[in-house]
């Protein structure tokens, strides 16, 4: 498995503070306890690239990881479980909606889901925003090592059926502990980050 080349660039408190809206960009989002940081560390084979914590909601800034001068991965603040005020969560939600609808360089969205929990309300909202804006989605069903293969299949089927309305979505079952699904995730990221034409 060849890791994805990433380097930390900056952290931003607001979407307006992100790099210029050009090139290729992928955003990775999800609840605060689904293993986003561990996933980023795994796909680039660098344990310290994204900070991990046992305290959900640690990531409260937009972290920018450059792939090259024209492409980047954005790690968005976790939602739902974070120990922050309702006003802060509402602000994140509003900014995320604007970002998904206005960011022209965005080529794809990775939504990380704890396979044991399935789709939750905010996941569905992001999926609907993405679908409305004709943006491809990759649903990463993470922490698959925590349940049996039969349970994995059952959960994956339920999520597949719950997102059949999407025009462009892929589903990959993953485990950072066992590296399950990592080559497929890296391959999809490479495709999005090396696109030459703007997604329409």
From TrEMBL:
Keywords: Cell cycle, Cell division, GTP-binding, Magnesium, Metal-binding, Nucleotide-binding, Septation. InterPro entries: G_ENGB_dom (IPR030393), GTP-bd (IPR006073), GTP-bd_ribosome_bio_YsxC (IPR019987), P-loop_NTPase (IPR027417), Small_GTP-bd (IPR005225). Residues 22-195 form the EngB-type G domain. Its cofactor is Mg(2+). It comes from the Bacteria. The keyword Endoplasmic reticulum does not apply. The keyword Membrane does not apply. It holds the Pfam family MMR_HSR1. CDD domains: YihA_EngB. Belongs to the TRAFAC class TrmE-Era-EngA-EngB-Septin-like GTPase superfamily. EngB GTPase family. Necessary for normal cell division and for the maintenance of normal septation. This is Probable GTP-binding protein EngB.
């Amino acid at each position: 498995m060849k890791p994805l080349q990433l380097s930390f660039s900056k952290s931003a408190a607001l979407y307006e503070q992100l790099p210029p809206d050009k090139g290729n960009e992928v955003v990775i989002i999800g609840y605060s306890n689904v293993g986003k940081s561990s996933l980023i560390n795994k796909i680039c084979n660098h344990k310290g690239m994204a900070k991990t914590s046992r305290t959900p909601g640690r990531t409260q800034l937009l972290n920018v990881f450059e792939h090259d001068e024209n492409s980047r991965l954005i790690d968005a603040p976790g939602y739902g479980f974070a120990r922050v005020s309702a006003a802060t969560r509402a602000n994140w939600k509003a900014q995320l909606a604007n970002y998904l609808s206005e960011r022209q360089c965005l080529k794809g969205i990775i939504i990380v889901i704890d396979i044991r929990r399935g789709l939750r309300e905010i996941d569905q909202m992001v999926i609907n925003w993405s679908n409305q804006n004709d943006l491809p989605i990759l649903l990463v069903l993470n922490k698959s090592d925590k349940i049996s293969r039969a349970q994995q299949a059952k959960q994956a089927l339920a999520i597949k059926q719950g997102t059949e309305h999407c025009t462009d979505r892929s589903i990959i079952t993953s485990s950072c502990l066992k590296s399950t699904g990592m080559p497929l995730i890296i391959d999809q990221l490479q495709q999005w980050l090396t696109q030459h034409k703007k997604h329409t």
